[in-house]
Amino acid sequence: MPGAAIQTVLLLKMENTRIDSAAAATPEVRISALELPAPGFERFTFPRYRALLAGTEAPETMHERIAVGARLGDAPVGLAFYSRAFEDGAKRRLLSVMVSPLLRRHGYASRMLALGEALAVARGAQVLTATHSSQMPAVTAYEALIRSAAWSAPAEFEYRLAGKASWALQAAQDWAPFLARLETRGYGSTPWGEISQGDRERIAQMVESELPEADRQFEPFTPEKKVGLLPDLSLLLRRRGEIVGWILASQGAMPGSVYYSSGYVVHSVRRAGWLVGGVREVCQRQAERLGGDTLSVFETSPKNNEMRRFMDRQLKPYSVWTDIRYTSEKQIGATHGEATTAPVASA
For the chain, where are the E strands, in sequence order? Predict the structure, then answer.
């Protein structure tokens, strides 16, 4: 790809020249609220938000978001971007903050955050939240930025692992003796889209009267309603016909990915391989339906040590990346400037 590399270098030189020229003529960087769409600022956020900034997507709710931009002359050089309000208007999420590399370490990101906070307060927000990945570029600089702005210390809330769906085909060979034993012990499954009303009633009965209190957070009906499951890639797990667990799948945030938000089996089969067999089966179904290069993404909370051990022991050898996600928050509004301990979210 030498041609692409040369083109990238030339584009960077052109960008730097534009910034240098603007700096020579107008040295002051101006921070201001942006009216969406704001073409030119999209390169200062994640790909999934760029269409909103560029105006190629214009949902009716676009005006409910908050965007703060930095300009050097007429050239966009930075952006802080916030979500719509949630929890009855009390919270907003900082989605991204970025400044052109040549202009970092001059306090412009802090100024954008201060204005974004003031705009959020004016619209009724009381808390700002933010999440970030251990794999994000310049993670140390980002954590220093939010610390200087009096946000809470980052707290781990999610461990993630991703692998190409084709790993399941290799695992079918690697695990052939184990999978054969699993079948003789009565392993079976039903795609979520094919479960019966009787199955639903049985699951409800299990959740209500048979699952330990700590396990009821894994009931499948709430995520089915809120997230929108992929019925062909979600499974009901059985042992000799009896329901013993489930694996739930939804569309991932990254293009070409499937997010497996919940995998649960009852205690009687927890050490018998049912979850291992189910995870391999859903990923094989994903490879067959969507392609072997699509990503299968799994996550768990920091409190779920059993699931994390399973992911590290059984799935990590086939993974293409792992990361830890952190959350931070800041109290604003009436309690402006007071940081609190970030909550630990469950997967």
Answer: 29-33, 66-72, 75-82, 91-99, 127-133, 155-164, 187-191, 235-239, 242-251, 257-265, 295-300, 321-331
